[in-house]
Amino acid sequence: MEIHQLQQIVHKTRDARRTQTLPKYSPAERDTLIKKYHPDFRENAYRAIKFGPNKGESTVRELATLLEGDSPVPADVDLTPAHTVDVLVVGGGGAGCAASLHAHSQGARVLLATKLRLGDSNTVMAQGGIQVAITNEDSPIQHFLDTLKGGHMKNDHQLLKVMVEEGPSIAKWLLDLGVLFDRDADGNLHVKKGGGSSKPRLLTCSDYTGLEIMRVLKDEVLNQKIQLMEFSAAVELLSDGNGVCTGAVLQDLDNKRFVVVAAKTVILATGGIGRLHIQGFPTSNHYGATGDGLAMAYRMGAKLLQIDTFQYHPSGAVFPEQLIGALVTEGIRSEGGHLVNAKGERFVNELDTRDVVSSSIIRECEEGRGIRTMSGRIGVWLDTPLLEVEQGPGTLEKHFPAMVRQYKRYGIDIAKDPVLIYPTLHYQNGGVQIDVDSESGVRNLFVAGETSGGLHGRNRLMGNSLLDLMVFGKRAGLTAAARAASMKQGKLTLEHVKRFREDARKHGVSSDITSPMLFPAYAKKEG
Amino acid sequence: MPEVDKENVIDQEEVLRPKMVSVEIAGKTYQVPEGITVIKALWYTGQEVIRGAGCLGGFCGACATYYRTKDDPKVKTCLACQTAVQDGMSFSMVPPFPARKATYQMAELKDPKQDLFTLYPEAPLCRNCNACTEACPQTIDVREGVWRAVFGDFKAVSEMFMDCVMCGLCVPVCIADIAPNLVALYASRAQGVHFTDKPQRLFHRIKEIEEGRYAEEWDRVLHMNEQQLKEACAELK
Predict the structure, then answer these.
(1) Predicted complex ipTM
(2) Residue A504 domain-assigned (yes or no)
(3) DSSP one-letter code for A233
(4) Which of A83, A344, A451, B121 has the lowest CB atom count within 10 Å?
């Protein structure tokens, strides 16, 4: 059927839906829904990891394969360092830049290495905002409880307390760098309500929050003249032979040469895993989100946490083909946009947590109330014109310019027509286990941002990722710099790789897969 | 397929029988499915892309591309991840351009509107050719923005350039060697650091936390058992 014909039901049912309020599910209902429909509970997508620190634990097959993968670095590689620094930061997104700036502020010699350009990351795409409890009706404690509830009570309490309590000072740090958050008329920071939060707490820069923060942090990294190596991917860590991290082997992607970096401390800020396309899902993630940090930390002996749980953002674009997987900001639902099935019905409280909303969309589609595309995709409608009806013409252009632009390129006017959405692989809830100073189980190996785990439990709340990056990027940077100031550089060996290879052999794993993956294999091999 | 579903299928003839179109990539001709994005056309033709792929969502500016459509002499710009190919299109990705970025300690500047002329002395030399505005894939009025910066209206600049993805396409076209995106970034940051209200409510909250306003409540919450925490969470509305 012609798309405009299918959209009629959304227009026809709009007025009736406006008066309707949908209750949130009870805890028991949420539980049943998630267990039945959330991709985290598809058993055949999972398998046990065969060896290493998380031996016997279950994760998605795509990740298990990478964790068991071999190092790309040959055992006899020359380990003479090309660079010797206090702090090596791997990754140029939000966490990496925050870590670099804070370590640099303490006088540490910092090298920031990133496999793409400085700033190419998931951070730059964050549209929803950053959660900071600042209003009189709100408090860090409420932020803590909201996050815990969203994370199914599985969050690390200490990490979480640190994050919510340092939120306000992080907001000030960003303001001091020139980040332009949206304001109220009285000059205070404007707050919006995010899915799964009991109070309005999202600081935003229209729907470009991540872009604005990333532009500023990038500029500051350059202003501070922090040593920067772009298109240089970390492919292996180095150890002193006794399990302490002492540096990393990078690969210059222009000439494929290995570059050895001796570093007293290493901060992994390599981001998430969307480009592994777990369970065949499209992803909202950037090109380099291939879980590099997880693979490297694992070989070094760092324990991973909650790597069986991933976040599928409820609203990934399904139509047109060019936008598949791209994110439709949660802000639309925050501002009152309805999710509507093929029968013109709402089916979930749109402001419930991401896992609940995603599960309910999958339910609608599996039970035959979805809208299909001829490329085999399926989705439900997100009623964007409703915002214009409720808040006046021009609302979308004013509050969601990025999204308006995104669709306009393909001739779609979201002010007039609803858009088709389906969950897209968005975030790695777990990751490398860290303490409150962002240090992993491996001494002198720090991990910040999406690569780390524990903070978000089994489901991250909207707006908590940008905060996580800034808080733990800062903590990693400060602790790593302080540590480096009081110690000598350890020797550089690949002993841990040797042990890892022996372990693989012992467990009968002879994989011809090497990790980190660095990039997804999109280039077609044959014509 | 459930019954109701059969009717709810969007017509997309192009997906069932992709129409192949002819495109020219960096001077070579290839056949690719019509409507895929420029970056996907590169992958489709077997090319590995490292320099030129970033967020793939239209936010990072890594995939700045020059293109021309069939028989049109006008060379246009786009982001390769956000633009669909069409028959007869020619395109090449834009290599990094060695623009000069001024370095500054933003908080220490005494008179940022004046300092602009020391940091970017070329900024007021704009010759109004408008090439930057035409080159902007985000349709920002770049030329206007440069002038606003020069005249000290940093607030307007910060609002106009909130959409800027720093792709740098405005830079190589400038006959006065201005890097408009960098000038705008400077002006926007200066606006934030020097000319924006101090948010009192935020400062108040920071002070409360420093003074231990929440210490007792933390103590209570952190000593709750799982059941008590669940109940506390259930009370949240």
Answers:
(1) 0.95
(2) no
(3) E
(4) B121
For residue A383, the enclosing domain spans 3-37+311-425
In A247-277, which positions are buried (b, 16+ CB within 10 angstroms) versus exposed (e)?
bbbbbbbeeeebbbbbbbbbbbbbbbbbbbe
**Co-location of A346 and A489 in the same domain:** no
Say if A437 falls within a structural domain.
yes
Type of residue at A285: N
d(C-alpha A190, C-alpha A204), whole Å: 8
Cα separation, A60 vs A152, whole angstroms: 20
Q: Which of B214, B218, B209, B138 is nearest to B180 (CA)?
A: B138
pTM for the full model?
0.95
Closest-CA residue of chain B to A378: B9
The catalytic site residues of A sit at 313, 333
The region of weakest confidence among A103-117, A304-318, A367-381 is: A367-381
The candidate with the shortest Cα–Cα distance to B134, out of B188, B78, B187, is: B78
CA distances from B41 to A30, A523, B22, B35, B81 (A): 42, 9, 11, 9, 10
Residues A145 and A264 in one domain: yes
Is residue A342 one of the residues assigned to a domain? Answer: yes
Q: Do A180 and B59 touch (CB under 8 A)?
A: no
**What's the pLDDT score for residue B10?**
75
Asked if A467 and A341 sit in the same domain, the reply is no
Q: Are B107 and A367 an interchain contact pair (Cβ–Cβ within 8 Å)?
A: no
Q: Which residues of B touch A135 (CB under 8 A)?
A: 201
Separation of alpha carbons B59 and B78, rounded Å: 12
* CATH code: domain of residue A288: 3.50.50.60
Give the pLDDT of residue A329: 86
**Is residue B222 within 8 angstroms of chain A, CB to CB?**
yes
Residue in B with minimal Cα distance to A167 = B206
How many domains is chain A built from?
A: 2
Q: Does B225 touch chain A (CB under 8 A)?
A: no
Across the interface, whether the CB atoms of B106 and A178 are under 8 A apart is answered: yes
Asked if residue A237 belongs to a domain, the reply is no
For the segment A446-459, the average pLDDT, to the nearest whole number, is 97
The token duo for B56 is: 């793939």
Phi, psi (degrees; rounded to nearest 5) at A203: -90, 135
Instruction: Tell me the domains of chain B and their CATH numbers.
Output: 13-93 (3.10.20.740), 106-194 (1.10.1060.10), 200-234 (no CATH)
